[in-house]
Amino acid sequence: MRLRHPPQLLHVLSVAGLLAGAVPVPAQTPVAPPKAAVCAACHGAQGNPVLPLVPALAGQTARYIYLQLRDFQEGRRSNALMSPMAKDLSRDEMRELGAWYAAQKSSPAPFQPDAARARLGKVKADETLCTMCHLGGFAGQNEIPRVAGQPFDYVVKQLRAFKARERTNDAGNMTSVSSTLSDDDILNLAHYIAGL
After folding, report:
1. Whole-angstrom Cα distance, residue 98 to residue 159?
2. Which class is 115-194 in CATH?
3. What is the Cα 68 distance to its own chain's centre?
4. What superfamily in CATH does domain 36-102 come from?
5. Residue 50's pLDDT band (cuts 50, 70, 90)
6. Is residue 185 within 8 Å of 114, Cβ to Cβ?
7. Would you kindly state where each structural domain of the chain is located, as residue ranges?
8. Residues 6 or more apart from 151 whose CB is under 8 A from it?
9. How far, in Å, CA of 187 to CA of 59, rounded?
10. How far apart are CA 18 and CA 69, in angstroms?
11. CA angle 102, 108, 187 (to 5 degrees)
């Protein structure tokens, strides 16, 4: 026996089906991966550190975080704290950490840049074409880090490490650029970048 439905009922059911698909699903609050609890000791609960030599991870590109963790693990980048922390991470854990921190809201530590130094830093950034890789606003992309709002001391330390070739896990881009920088240039750039 074949059931027949009135056309109006079929119309109501099809509209209801369309509307059900259009109802927004409430966004779930992402849960921090288990390994993030260890990271929080230095990088802060959501990746916004208070220590001056620790980079902000909140809002950083997921790909960059993954690659840096892998570089620490494989010895292409070295740090007395980070190298042992990354040693036993699986690739999936590295990706989870990258995705978690990339989804967090960046709230840079309060920093009052010297206005004159920041202006000179912007001139140097324009001269060395920093935004070709780091993009406008120094927001970063893929494996190129977001450096806007990073702690002043951290920026200085990294630029000096690239210049001295103590840090070389950058395919040569930053070591090449930083080799042209004076120490004043580095300080000026740090004032500019940390103040963004």
Report:
1. 23
2. mainly alpha
3. 11
4. Cytochrome c-like domain (1.10.760.10)
5. confident
6. no
7. 36-102, 115-194
8. 49, 51, 52, 53, 54, 55, 56, 108, 109, 111, 194
9. 24
10. 44
11. 115
pLDDT tens, 122-146?
999 999 999 999 999 999 999 999 9
Q: Which residues of 63-83 are buried (b: 16+ CB within 10 A; e: fewer)?
A: bbbbbbbbbbbeeebeeeebe
Dig out the tokens for 195 from the structure: 């103040």
Cβ–Cβ under 8 Å, residues 134 and 147: yes
Please write the tens of the pLDDT for every residue from 151-161. Answer: 999 999 999 99
Contact 166, 89 (CB under 8 A): no
Q: Which amino acid is at 57?
A: L
CA distance 187 to 95: 33
Residues forming beta bridges with residue 144, ordered by sequence position: 141
Q: Quote the pTM value.
A: 0.83
Q: Give the 3-state secondary structure of residue 145.
A: coil
Evaluate whether 66 touches 98 at the Cβ level (below 8 Å). yes
